[in-house]
């Protein structure tokens, strides 16, 4: 059955390393097959492709050894976002994207939602497609969710998406919805034709490289489908990653410092582009600051929707700046704000400067080399006890402030905290401000009620009561 659409938001949250892509493109093909009476002045279609764990050095436009020719072309014929920032991990990034609020305003700044954690984005926060609906958008999400699912009201079709095709957690077997024993590399991709095209890569990076080739073809297929159905001219295609690459799983953030999870740039400065005939200027690199929380405000602007003042959105509208190569309206942002064992964790960016308040997190804060794959600092079984690992990843005895001038030192080699006390003070004030408005992290123990054994071996919903707002949980 085909659905007649005027405007579409498709959130395609793809795991580069999962086979969901093939299914994603199939569903998108179906959804956009019949289009009639598209008004040229109607708000644009938005195809938002969110890559999972794709690092700065994992895309062809930053690294010629990665074979993403179609995405390279879309990026080069559109606008490359070279100072695009996400949060350091999946759940916080996705929450920021879909609510327009920094994850620390939602209690979701610490780690990711665990398998049986009875929490999700509280219901009072409206997701982007809920607002787009007021302008007649139909929205479809495919792939990974990771924003809570224990109460049905946390799940995509209760949060504005008309359809959802994917899985609710961070890693789960794509089709069976059981806990995948091999959660990162889906057996369908493993050893397949794409990986064979990656033999020049170090062994531990071959599957990742193959998955990027697969992703590239999916992105190509999506844009071709838009063109075939005369939708492309009124569409905006976005690709970004949700956090930095993880060297353990074949990702790479060279030349940036730090790994997935880190407050150094490697954990948060990720590849991205916008491709759209609606852009006034194309074929250039936008070097203004752009944060993942900005998409919400930007898309509302494009859809002609004025957000409710009480929603206190954290994003800024980036459209005119990106479209016309003007200075970014964003001049600062918090990377993350948390408090663990009384230690204030977080980082803030103000202009060219960045302050990491103390512990920097991440499973490695070192600089990775170009083809480095395995981060020796972390435990291969860590996924089974992720949150304790997140806390362990912060060196809580490292209280020294780290101040960098990223304009001259983008790889964070030269700590200026002692040399520039006035700058340090200025950034510390902004840090304290963002810290003061952040909500405490919500971290709940796994609830046995959500165990797959209770549901015939699958992960599913219906075993908790959703929160309307961020609860105050006394966390460890
Ligand atoms: C892209 O489309 C082509 C042609 O329909 C198809 O053969 C191919 O499998 C698709 N690629 C992916 C990765 O889905
Ligand atoms: C990284 O791998 C690519 C592809 O095999 C190779 O061309 C390049 O020389 C390698 N770089 C380094 C520094 O070893
Ligand atoms: C933690 O930080 C302290 C203080 O900077 C340092 O002496 C120590 O070596 C660090 N520990 C680890 C495991 O890196």
Automatic annotation (TrEMBL):
- CDD domains per UniProt: 4-S (cd16029)
What are the names of the required cofactors? Ca(2+)
Matching entries from Gene3D superfamilies are given as: 3.30.1120.10, Alkaline Phosphatase, subunit A (3.40.720.10)
Superkingdom, natural source = Eukaryota
| Any GO MF annotation of the entry | metal ion binding
Which Pfam families does the entry mention? Sulfatase
Keyword Metal-binding among UniProt keywords? yes
Keywords, in A-Z order: Calcium, Glycoprotein, Hydrolase, Metal-binding, Signal
- All copies of the Sulfatase N-terminal domain together span 44-182, 193-305
Q: Could you confirm whether the keyword Metal-binding appears in this record? A: yes
InterPro entries attached to this UniProt entry: Alkaline_phosphatase_core_sf, ARSB, Sulfatase_CS, Sulfatase_N
Q: Which residues form the signal peptide?
A: 1-24
What family does this belong to? Belongs to the sulfatase family.
Protein name (record): Sulfatase N-terminal domain-containing protein
Q: Which species expresses this protein natively?
A: Strigamia maritima
């Amino acid at each position: 059955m085909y659905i007649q659409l005027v405007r579409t938001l498709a959130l395609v949250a793809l795991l580069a390393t999962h086979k969901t892509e093939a299914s994603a493109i199939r569903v998108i093909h179906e959804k956009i097959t019949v289009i009639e009476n598209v008004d040229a002045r109607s708000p644009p279609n938005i195809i938002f492709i969110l890559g999972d764990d794709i690092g700065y050095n994992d895309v062809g436009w930053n690294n010629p050894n990665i074979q993403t020719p179609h995405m390279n072309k879309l990026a080069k014929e559109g606008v490359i976002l070279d100072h695009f920032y996400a949060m350091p991990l999946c759940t916080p990034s996705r929450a920021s994207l879909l609510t327009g609020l920094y994850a620390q305003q939602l209690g979701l700044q610490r780690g990711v939602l665990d398998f049986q954690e009875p929490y999700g984005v509280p219901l009072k926060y409206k997701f982007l497609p809920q607002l787009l609906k007021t302008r007649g958008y139909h929205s479809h999400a495919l792939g990974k969710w990771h924003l809570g699912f224990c109460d049905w009201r946390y799940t995509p079709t209760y949060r504005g998406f008309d359809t959802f095709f994917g899985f609710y957690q961070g890693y789960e077997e794509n089709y069976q919805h059981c806990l995948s024993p091999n959660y990162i590399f889906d057996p369908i991709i493993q050893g397949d034709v794409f990986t064979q095209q990656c033999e020049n890569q170090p062994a531990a990076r071959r599957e990742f490289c193959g998955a990027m080739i697969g992703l590239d073809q999916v992105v190509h297929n999506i844009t071709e489908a838009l063109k075939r159905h005369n939708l492309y001219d009124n569409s905006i295609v976005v690709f970004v990653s949700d956090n930095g690459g993880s060297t353990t799983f074949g990702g790479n953030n060279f030349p940036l410092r730090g790994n997935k999870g880190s407050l150094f740039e490697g954990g948060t400065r990720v590849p991205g582009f916008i491709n759209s005939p609606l852009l006034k200027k194309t074929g250039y690199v936008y070097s203004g600051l752009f944060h993942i929380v900005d998409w919400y405000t930007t898309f509302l602007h494009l859809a002609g929707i004025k957000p409710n003042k009480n929603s206190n959105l954290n994003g800024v509208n980036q459209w005119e700046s990106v479209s016309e190569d003007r200075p970014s309206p964003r001049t600062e942002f918090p990377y993350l704000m948390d408090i663990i064992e009384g230690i204030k964790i977080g980082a803030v960016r103000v202009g060219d400067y960045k302050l990491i308040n103390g512990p920097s997190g991440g499973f490695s804060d070192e600089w990775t080399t170009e083809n480095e794959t395995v981060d020796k600092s972390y435990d291969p079984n860590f996924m089974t006890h992720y949150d304790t690992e997140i806390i362990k990843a912060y060196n809580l005895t490292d209280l020294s402030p780290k101040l960098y001038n990223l304009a001259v030192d983008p790889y964070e080699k030269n700590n200026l905290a002692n040399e520039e006390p006035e700058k340090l003070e200025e950034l510390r004030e902004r840090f304290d401000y963002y810290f003061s408005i952040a909500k405490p992290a919500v971290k709940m123990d796994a609830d046995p009620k959500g165990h797959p054994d209770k549901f015939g071996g699958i992960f599913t919903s219906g075993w908790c009561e959703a929160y309307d707002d961020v609860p105050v949980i006394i966390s460890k």
